[in-house]
Q: What sequence folds into this?
């Protein structure tokens, strides 16, 4: 029954979309009630940064899914090379990103072909 | 734009492997617009989890949007034309557009912030949808090292996006959060992230205030 399966998927998507939007909308409701650029608003920015940094560091160190099939040392070496380029290029973002992903891809390819 | 498209290519492949149709995969990029929540939904769906459990897990994975929309909106507060669109703005917000607007918004005239954010967001969402469709069609055809590098691009991009943050309380929150994140996740995979954010954010906020007192 492919049609029923498709319908169930759209239902799932609506629920997941709504479940995410609830957080965004709650932010709006509260933002309208607190002083812009006040202490509370600054604190929330700090919390957002803390959450995002925690999420990214967790993905780098303890990934789930396909990234979990790569060795931790590859991810860290790639990140280190990216940071070196970032610093060398006066804190420019693009050399850092390209360097890190480039090194990671080379390492993954070498492992894939059994060279490393 | 390229980064958004490339990251969503990885999502497209995953969505196909999880049994999503192309329409659902591409639409989810626009309507959920939060990769961790989308990934959680696809992975749970693939193992046949109940609907409510999937919705709850993906909601928790996207909880970061709450403090993010709270800290973004003050930028539009003074402009009635933008403020009217606040519920639409937060739906278009991603980590990328949030961080970029938080950095560049304050130096823009107040009536130009709304259009700036809208243009940036719409472009990113369009790029994300194209990337999702491309990834869906390419699933299984790219070698493993390419797919895995496309997935790796996403966290790496954010590392360097945040490496440019200048405000001291923001930098402190990022450093403390990065150290704390894996620990709180290990303690509780469901609640680790909000706790990490609240602890890192609060410590950074007061540490910065304390240091400011010492500077003065």
A:
């Amino acid at each position: 029954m492919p049609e029923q399966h498709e319908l169930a998927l759209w239902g799932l998507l609506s629920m997941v979309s709504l479940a995410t939007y609830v957080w965004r909308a709650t932010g709006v409701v509260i933002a309208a009630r607190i002083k812009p650029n006040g202490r509370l608003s600054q604190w929330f920015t700090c919390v957002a940064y803390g959450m995002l940094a925690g999420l990214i560091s967790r993905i780098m160190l303890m990934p789930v899914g396909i990234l979990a099939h790569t060795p931790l040392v590859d991810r860290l070496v790639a990140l280190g090379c990216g940071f070196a380029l970032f610093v060398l290029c006066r804190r420019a973002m693009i050399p850092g990103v390209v360097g890190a992903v480039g090194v990671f891809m080379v390492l993954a390819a070498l492992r894939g072909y059994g060279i490393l | 734009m390229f980064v958004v498209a490339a990251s969503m290519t990885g999502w497209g492949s995953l969505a196909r492997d999880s049994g999503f149709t192309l329409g659902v995969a591409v639409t989810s990029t626009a309507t959920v617009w939060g990769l961790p929540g989308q990934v959680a939904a696809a992975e749970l769906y693939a193992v046949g989890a109940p609907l409510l459990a999937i919705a709850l897990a993906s909601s928790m994975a996207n909880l970061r949007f709450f403090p993010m929309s709270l800290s973004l909106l003050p930028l539009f507060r003074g402009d009635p034309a933008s403020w009217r669109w606040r519920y639409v703005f937060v739906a278009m917000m991603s980590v990328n557009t949030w961080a970029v607007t938080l950095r560049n918004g304050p130096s823009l005239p107040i009536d130009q912030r709304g259009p700036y954010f809208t243009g940036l967001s719409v472009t990113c969402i369009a790029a994300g949808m194209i990337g999702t469709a491309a990834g869906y069609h390419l699933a299984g055809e790219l070698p493993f090292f390419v797919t895995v590098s496309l997935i790796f691009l996403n966290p790496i991009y954010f590392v360097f996006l945040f490496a440019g943050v200048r405000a001291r309380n923001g930098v402190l929150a990022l450093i403390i959060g990065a150290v704390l994140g894996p620990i709180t996740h290990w303690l509780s995979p469901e609640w680790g992230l909000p706790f990490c954010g609240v602890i890192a954010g609060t410590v950074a906020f007061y540490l910065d205030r304390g240091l400011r007192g010492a500077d003065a």
